Amino acid sequence: MSGVGKSSSNKASSALRSSKARSRDKALTSGRPPLLSSSKSKPASALNPQRSSLSSKRTRTLIRAHHVLQKRLARARAENDMEQIQDLEAQLAASGGLETYQLASTVGQSAERGGDSSRVLVDWLRPEIEARRRGRKKDSTLAASSPPSSLAHGASPPLTPPPLPLRILEIGALSTTNALNMPRLTSVRRIDLRSSGPGIEEADFMTFPLPDSPDGSGEWEGRRGYDVISLSLVLNYVPDARGRGDMLRRTTMFFSRGHEHEQVDEDFGEHVVMHTEPRSDGQQDNGTDEDEDEDEGEQATQRHPRKRGDDQRQSRRLLPCLFLVLPAPTLLNSRYITPDHLADMLSSLGYSDLEAKTTRKLHYSLWRFDPKRRDEWIAQGGKTVFKKKELNPGSGRNNFCIVLDDPDKG
């Protein structure tokens, strides 16, 4: 190649590198992470360039800083310290506020980072999902094999209709593209304090209409209640201990009542709901400051205390259930709460533990709700009030806490 050719090639390469460098600089203006657009109509796919610009370390820093500021703000409000409140609100606004927190959380929970906690939930719900898949397949097979005139000649329709799709309420949803999306098998309602895109309702769970609201505002898709409630990395966002307890108690008010009539479908082999939940027409068919990065690329599972064999999983009842995800340090390194302490709290509300899994960063658990469980707990002398009490003294621990008050003494 001639000297002129080499010179032209070098200039072109230099210009290309310069162009790429300017592009990278523009992606993170002044070193500040990009914010989510306030437009609710912006598709989630438009966020991909921004999401890819946040490293795991930056994600952790943003989430941790946001929780620290929220915790300090809650304390200032409790003390009615107006000067401190204004200062902290200004700091939150300067750091991007809830929009930046949502972006960091979305990046951490992205499938690319291995942080989609809904995949764990789907695995634990596998018996219910497979029952619905087989039920629909069987229904389609029967419909295809039956002559069109068979019903007209007095033939009976299938005795067992396919199970209803799993109704899932995802609280604190950041994405509509997670593992819960299974057409005809699941029906997912997603809410968050601030919607980050289409398909996510902007709502506060603590004021969200109850399924049994007399005005019908709590109905969804013509029915009341949900089979599954997902509370993934939401409880730790609540700034005070009492508010966390109130949120756990409130989850018990959102489950479908039809599970009281659950029966074993011999064709499917699992406990499933066969169109027995109440219809909407009234008729019966019978803050913490710990590392909270959701990047689960290194899934060093530490404990799996309630792991069952496949046979046992197939035969037990799962619904209705609560899926709870917390940063691992909130349970394993707190002064005021332990996994056993949390289990006692949830038992007092009517929950029974089904599954648990702890990775290096997160603690996942699944809990079945049954009002009778609370009655049994009380009859056995179990307590229903859990105050703030030091359980694990020592330095180096965090102050994450959940307080459950007596609901009759508001």
UniProtKB/TrEMBL annotation:
<keyword id="KW-0808">Transferase</keyword>
<protein>
    <recommendedName>
        <fullName>25S rRNA adenine-N(1) methyltransferase</fullName>
        <ecNumber>2.1.1.-</ecNumber>
    </recommendedName>
</protein>
<keyword id="KW-0489">Methyltransferase</keyword>
<keyword id="KW-0539">Nucleus</keyword>
<comment type="similarity">
    <text>Belongs to the BMT2 family.</text>
</comment>
<keyword id="KW-0949">S-adenosyl-L-methionine</keyword>
<dbReference type="GO" id="GO:0016433">
    <property type="term" value="F:rRNA (adenine) methyltransferase activity"/>
</dbReference>
<dbReference type="GO" id="GO:0005730">
    <property type="term" value="C:nucleolus"/>
</dbReference>
<feature type="binding site">
    <location>
        <position position="192"/>
    </location>
    <ligand>
        <name>S-adenosyl-L-methionine</name>
    </ligand>
</feature>
<feature type="region of interest" description="Disordered">
    <location>
        <begin position="1"/>
        <end position="62"/>
    </location>
</feature>
<feature type="binding site">
    <location>
        <position position="172"/>
    </location>
    <ligand>
        <name>S-adenosyl-L-methionine</name>
    </ligand>
</feature>
<feature type="region of interest" description="Disordered">
    <location>
        <begin position="132"/>
        <end position="159"/>
    </location>
</feature>
<dbReference type="InterPro" id="IPR021867">
    <property type="entry name" value="Bmt2/SAMTOR"/>
</dbReference>
<comment type="function">
    <text>S-adenosyl-L-methionine-dependent methyltransferase that specifically methylates the N(1) position of an adenine present in helix 65 in 25S rRNA.</text>
</comment>
<feature type="region of interest" description="Disordered">
    <location>
        <begin position="276"/>
        <end position="313"/>
    </location>
</feature>
<feature type="compositionally biased region" description="Acidic residues">
    <location>
        <begin position="287"/>
        <end position="298"/>
    </location>
</feature>
<feature type="compositionally biased region" description="Low complexity">
    <location>
        <begin position="33"/>
        <end position="56"/>
    </location>
</feature>
<dbReference type="Pfam" id="PF11968">
    <property type="entry name" value="Bmt2"/>
</dbReference>
<feature type="compositionally biased region" description="Low complexity">
    <location>
        <begin position="1"/>
        <end position="18"/>
    </location>
</feature>
<feature type="compositionally biased region" description="Low complexity">
    <location>
        <begin position="141"/>
        <end position="157"/>
    </location>
</feature>
